[in-house]
DNA sequence: GTCTATATGCAGATAGAC
DNA sequence: GTCTATCTGCATATAGAC
């Protein structure tokens, strides 16, 4: 079966190898030759299939946050729960780091905007209403983004030391933005 | 005068050209040859003087925030004023962006930690007291870092639209962390 | 001492052989 | 569909001109 089959499997092998290496080492520190090696093919073939290293990067560095566990959360505890979900969703860290560090390239920056909008702004925006809902959602997304930045880009060890306390207290800040006390 | 003089001027010309180009285009997108060209010398000379492109980058990407205008600020308006100062200090944007994007290199990441600590955490920490002062300062620094991240790395145009309102409202969040209401 | 010319080695990408 | 050979441009190292 599948006289035309093997190309598809090879393409997927390249994609999977690239995803793993990009998440692990980022864009700049991952040579195309290493991706090819991990996939068991020639480096030229990687370019053949995906056009360029940047295309392959964009093909693999996607992120969709699962909203569902957040929909049932009562509004009074939404801020904290959102921080908790973002910090414990597996894929976020690697994708976020790779996109932030690669954002000197304009297309990677564009992807970062999309991911930020979809993963942080949108879930917050969905729970807000009122005239300034959009601004509040964007400020809350900025605050959450700042937590990821401090923990993962800067690597603030003292901030990471007590994760439960961090979730509780930083969550309370986000909560203030989502549903300010009267 | 100065039989040994011209080398000093050349070195400074290279340093100045490098600073301008790194701030403008970042680390990855600035070839050593461009720096040399802008300084009017050969590329090999740049390496001669500074050892490597990375050394030169670290030599130029420093940042010291001027604390003084913050020392007199009453504690009730400190959060807002701090946001205002950070957003309007000229050098911060370029240095911050270049360091964040270059942070895949371990020495650049280390410099980012230093700058984050010195420019964001320390001024906040200086105004706080109490058992949890350090954690509160780090959370406030994360929040401010998130603002820079959203505005400059992500490029959230909607957030940037009304700067005065942003300063007032995001400043209020930082204020909550600096001096929480009783 | 200060600088240039040139060489080395690695990266992404292309042409075309098999 | 896959690989070999090769091009171009990069950071960096060395030799030696002035």
From TrEMBL, chains A, B:
Keywords: DNA-binding, Transcription, Transcription regulation
InterPro entries for the chain: Homeodomain-like_sf, HTH-type_TetR-like_transc_reg, HTH_TetR, Tet_transcr_reg_TetR-rel_C_sf, TetR_C_16
DNA-binding region, residue intervals: 31-50
Highest taxon of source: Bacteria
HTH tetR-type domain: residues covered: 8-68
Name the record gives this protein: TetR family transcriptional regulator
Pfam family, one: TetR_C_16
